[in-house]
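We store sequence, tokenised fold; for instance:
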Amino acid sequence: MKNKLLVGVGRHDITPPIGAWLTGYAPARRAESVGDNLNITAFAFEYNGLRSMVVTADVCLIRANYAEQVRKLMGTAAHIPFEHITLSATHTHSGPATFRTGGGSEMDMEYFNNIFIPAAEKAAADAAASLRPAQLGVGEIHSDVGVNRRGMKLDGSIVLGQDPHGTYDPIMTVISFREPDGKPIGNIIHYGAHNTASGKNTEITRDWCGVAIDRLEAESGGITAFFNGCEGDCGPRLPNGQTTGNYKMALELGGRAAIDAVNAWRSIKEWRDCDMRVICHTVKLPYKPLPTKEALQAEIDAMGDPSQLVGLKVTQYEALIQRMELLCSGEPISDGLPMDLPVISVGPVAFFPIPFEIFSRITLRIRQFSPYPYTLSLSNTNGAYRYFPSMDQICRGGYEVWVFTSFAAQPFADDSEQYLVEGAVNILNELHS
């Protein structure tokens, strides 16, 4: 249908069986019950024959190579070029083992192959099969569901908790689609905060975002999904002053998020016809120079007996070994990571994929300079490398910065934020023009 936006939605269950490893913490723990079911939801778009799709799954992370595999299968099922598909993870820490955690669980390939992939293909196919003329509505609201989680102690050290003075993105955005006669199609809730309110629980759950999804779906009548934004340094604002609690706390905070999501949806005053655009460009993030072999060996020796390492120390040790192998290989060493970024815009809304747990200041900067009124940065999309801190936080250290600098064979340069922000804005400007 020429000059008409078409939208379709597909959703399928991806809940793992009882006994499956729940990942998001090390060590992992086994599921003993189902608090609420997990889903994968796909929104397909078509405009003048051009097709694209944004997909979100209720899992913690999906590594880049597996994300590409799933995107290709979804593309085949939906007849959409896989380069025009983004696959996000909501980052629930109470979902199945879709990745390997150091000192925790291995990736659950049986779950991935037999439950996740078939559901992803079905969701994509259903979304493409249900394409119909659509209008767009956008609502925003100030929400305090999230809070900066890099708590600062009196001595200046950083711990996981809540920082009432820290940066976070308070804007919750609801993107809603309906048919021209007003019949609902679907909704997207966008907000940035870890889905960790349930803590190290044994219930399978979408965490706090699940309550908001269900409530808005009931109010609007359209299939609803959650896309996480700048959750790298943002956690759920729990009454215990932490960013982890229990399943009851997740439901309580979810009720607060549900009120915000419904109010954002109700604030929509205009439904408009709009176009859809796609652009695929590469942004290269620079690596730090590797240390000398002697300096690196000293770091390895300082780790102690590798057989005694537990938790995330295992991942740190493995990264050091990989660095040494790179130095000893004699092969050319890369100076940076090229990231292929498919950016999709629907009218005034731009979906910008970021394969990291991105810090809030970075996404706020991208939004500030973007030509789109609604620029939605999507964390853990088309892969999930690790935390990506803003330049102002690297000097403070803390857990996320330790992961950023220690969990890869080649760590990124400290000023990588600038490359990402400038690259993102250049892509968005080109797409807009």
Observations:
- The mean pLDDT is 96.
- The first strand starts at residue 6 and ends at 13.
- The chain is about 30% helix and 30% strand.
- The two ends are 23 Å apart (CA to CA).
